[in-house]
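[AMINO ACID CHAIN]
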Amino acid sequence: MFLDKLIDFPKNKFIVLIIIVAFILGVFISQYFMAPIEAELKSSTGYGVIEFEFAWTSEQINRIFIAWGSEGKKKEAFVTYIDFIFIPCYSLFMAGSILLVIRNLEGRVQEIGLVMTILPFIAGIFDVIENINLLLMLSDDGFIWSLSPFIASLCATIKFSLIFIAIIFFIVALIIGIIKKFK
């Protein structure tokens, strides 16, 4: 399997550096750009990015956009553009974390872990497709009445499912690694 090369390459020091940089940049982006706008929109209208991502229908998108108004839509568009920078942060952080943990394991768990290292990147691809559809709706009301709400929500569902699976695997692999270390 081509993923087997990840067992030895890149070196752990490089992976740790990537994890640290991705974590710091991701926290910075989320706390200084995304979270304040999200909090403002949610508190003033009752709708935030999660409601937008999981609206599923044109009617729900329309309700959200009416509540946000043109200023709210501009703010959400800004956050969505910023999310394109956030995607590689969470993808690299998660994949690197999984890779570091599985390097100390062996057998089937390590094999599964190698596959799990690509899940955050696949989630990122779905996030990009989701963002494109969100931006289409934010920039042109005609897209509200297309398949964009459904596609964005479906991609968000797949993205969060893949992230959840990766996190659960990381926790299980970490526990297995800790148990192995104390044996």
Notes: Residues 10-182 form one domain. The chain has six helices and no strands. The helical segments are 12-45, 49-53, 58-102, 107-116, 119-139, 148-182.
